């Protein structure tokens, strides 16, 4: 039970013996706040350490420790033979800060921000709801082989190599880079040496590095429309200008991109599984884009975020595998095939740019943790990852079929939906009069995360739809979730 002081000035001060915060620290913080709030004014004498200890039923040493800290930081002053007093020299502006700290709104001030930071001023961060049913990109976490993963982690922590405990390589541990290079060569037809692989804390970090490597502030960068907001954010944060290029059934349109911004420094695309619409970039357009990059001396960022999961034939080869002039920077992630909390992404860069990207990465955080990387290397090289992907490919295909069937049965008059050939989400198109952003908001309130398609466009659009992830949502709960979604949409159409 919290212990309170009977002194009226400190009636709100309470100590909780069950708290993880030590009692002396609780007392220090409580007295300091009372001083800053003006409840204890300058020159006010505090109770003796002995009497305060008795009142609070704590040891005298606890009180002395709190008083000593307050004195050391200038809140109290000790007067010989008299006791401890609130300092008489507290500056007025310190005492006035309480009004700012407790104000409902922080006063606005004129702050100069760089071109990279200025776009984010006064824009609150959107709350994330990852983990809710229908979350796009959420894998089937309950199906992950955690026992195998835990055993590999334990094995590597039990006898870690010395170099893993001192410093990891800037680009990631050699064993993981080799495992990733082999895995990508076998599954995505990526052509690379292990030294070309750079391990990062996620694909978003890779996107930021690529944009910063090639774009000056004000430069134009092509991206898909609609497209992944993380790419748009990376472009804006670098001070560059995103140029949204509408996609069609064959994917990115080079002809339209050249008419919109012929001097673009970089193009960011997801050719194997366009995000969020899901189409595959045609071979003819892939070859045309590679020829453009070679002729103009430009580069291509290939975001290959979930192409391991293909349900119609074998996974498609990467754009990087077709590149004969080292113009493609390939970006991938473990978030979709394992889990996002692992925080492992990677990029494959041309050989002549390896040192450049290692230097850029070093300036951010030096290196990534080595021992978990060694465990991940074992997880890949010993076949656990490939086996897990095979199992999930079958599971996700069944889950997509289940979701498509339910949507067509229950909402045939409200949506248009067809199964995707690959990936972990599908797009359910709505009538233009149905506000998809209001559906998204209402769904979150009902415990589901369905993304509004219109939110993935840079400009205004009449295209309304819902992006529904099926991979991480069990078939057993899908019927009731679709019923809930049905009610939400029909309510908004009244």
| Order of strands in the sheet with most strands | 5-11-10-9-8-6-7
The assigned CATH architecture of the largest domain is 3-Layer(aba) Sandwich
Low-confidence stretches: 99-103
Count of helical segments?
Answer: 16
Shape: globular
Q: Can you describe this structure?
A:
The protein is of the alpha/beta class and 494 residues long. It has 3 domains: 99 residues, Orthogonal Bundle (Arc Repressor Mutant, subunit A), CATH 1.10.10; 240 residues, Aspartate Aminotransferase, domain 2; 107 residues, Aspartate Aminotransferase, domain 1. The protein is 40% helix and 13% strand. The protein has 16 helices and 15 strands. A 7-stranded mixed β-sheet has the order 5-11-10-9-8-6-7, with helices on both faces. The chain has a 4-stranded antiparallel β-sheet with strand order 12-13-15-14, with helices on one face. The longest helix has 27 residues. The radius of gyration is 29 Å and the shape is globular. The chain starts with a strand and ends with a helix. About 1% of the residues have low confidence.
